[in-house]
Amino acid sequence: MTPISLLQNKQILLGVSGSIACYKAVDLASQMTQAGALVDVIMTEAAQQFVTPLTFRSVTGRPVFSNMWDLDDHVRHVGLGETADLFLIVPATANTLAKLAHGTADNLLTVTALAARCPLLVAPAMDGGMFAHPATQANLETLRARGVSILGPAVGRMASGLSGPGRMLEPADLLGHVRLTLAQKGPLAGTKVVVSTGPTREPMDPVRFISNRSTGKQGLAVAQAALDAGAQVTLVAGPISAPIPFGAHTIHVETTQQMADAVLGAIQDADALFMVAAVADFRPGKQSSQKIKKTEMEDWGLAIGLEVTLDILSAVKEHRERTGFPRVSLGFAAETHDAFEYGRQKLLRKGLNFIAVNDVLQPDAGFGVDTNRVVLLSSAGVVEEMPLLSKTAVAERLVHHVARALGR
Ligand code: CTP
For the chain, which domains are there? Predict the structure, then answer.
């Protein structure tokens, strides 16, 4: 899932101070650049003992600055501090944290920090007892009180071989924090959004179940797009193996009943529901608590029957009529034929504001692939007929329409 718009053309200042964790900052710079951000790196002298400016320059495609006495660098970076969207210090050593806490400005990184007007995020990285030392803790407290976000550190193995708090967060988590910070000004800031994703599974016995081909990709993309728009996201996920977006409160479920319970619980005060899950429509009429032996299968096969599962959106409709929540609700219609007409009927039957109709038989849309072709309907007709897009782009379009419906 390549993030598209949130980081696109965002100006991010990346301050790098001297720790072995500098190599992770290179990965982070690369990931942010690939996501479209303009990453300007400032290195301390100590950082250059671990990695060279050329390394950062190679991944960001932009000059790297380090010399406070180069007047051009100095003036440009103080300027960048004033215009950047975000200032990240990764890794932040105990020494750099102390300087930041006390307003010391003795290198280009700390000078720029004093000039910066944007959110400042620092990721501490240090060894042994340095993190726990009262001096470091007091410095962190000072920074926190000043509105600086302290990311981590994690507990784990450090360069000395010791284990404990001090290990820097991994680049994927740091990127998650960057996204959440940039999203704070998004159109869904302050809203609560529920997203369901993946298949559900209906067990026949402890080893067998009825399910479907959903991998959860489209729902995960919707959850990420809602997070990027600033929403607080509850993700109700059936069994899926793809990574969960950073910052989503996730409830893992297996059966349709469990998904229904989780969704109905989460929508109590929700602004929007995106019901993306491919819910299993049938379940075995009988379930065995023990594995059914092959010799018994013939009898079971005949006797097992199938029963229809609860329609979660119909239960949501009822809840909505009583309480007004969720304020806006969007469903998906997975169709193999007459997609438009079936979609329209489902929209009305399930009491939805929107339905995203997709033909799951198309090779470049539907289950498992990274693209989708969706027509968004409301009771007024076609809202948007999307061309073939990445699931990320589809998700961003859907979030945009729901945000508008919420008056954002
Ligand atoms: N859905 C639901 N509960 C179910 C089945 C589906 O809430 N038991 C939701 C899906 O999450 C989706 C929408 O209803 O948002 C439409 O799902 P879909 O599988 O396309 O339709 P069905 O209602 O299952 O109808 P059919 O099988 O006849 O196409």
Answer: 5-183 (3.40.50.1950), 187-405 (3.40.50.10300)
Q: What is the pLDDT of residues 92-103, one digit of tens each?
A: 999 999 999 999
To 10 degrees, what angle do helices 94-102 and 134-145 make?
Answer: 50
- Residue-wise over 231-241: b if at least 16 C-beta within 10 A, else e? bbbbbbbbebe
- pTM, full prediction: 0.91
For the CA of 334, the closest atom of ligand 1 is: 20
Q: Is 281 in the pocket of ligand 1 (CB under 6 A)?
A: yes
Tell me the C-alpha distance between 388 and 372, whole Å: 6
Atom of ligand 1 nearest to the CA of 333: 20
In the reported structure, the alpha carbon of residue 311 is separated from the centroid of ligand 1 by a whole-number distance in angstroms of 7
The rounded distance, in Å, linking the Cα atoms of 137 and 98 is 10
CA of residue 352 to ligand 1 center, whole Å: 12
Residue type, 391: K
Task: Kindly list the catalytic residues.
Answer: 212
332 lines ligand 1 (CB under 6 A): yes
Q: Write the pLDDT tens digit of every residue in 222-258.
A: 999 999 999 999 999 999 999 999 999 999 999 999 9
Helix (H, G, I), strand (E, B) or coil at 238: coil
Residue 386 C-alpha to ligand 1 middle, in angstroms?
A: 21
Please check the confidence at residue 81 and state whether its pLDDT lies above 60. Answer: yes
Residue 277 Cβ inside 6 Å of ligand 1? The answer reads yes
Distance 276 CA to ligand 1 centre (A): 9
Whole-angstrom Cα Rg for the chain: 25
Compute the distance between CA of residue 28 and CA of residue 173 in angstroms, rounded to an integer.
10
Kindly state if the Cβ of 311 falls inside 6 Å of ligand 1.
yes
pLDDT of residue 301: 67
Lowest-pLDDT range of 30-44, 132-146, 159-173: 159-173
- Strand-pairing partners, residue 235, are 195, 250
Residue among 81, 363, 403, 66 nearest 226 (CA): 403
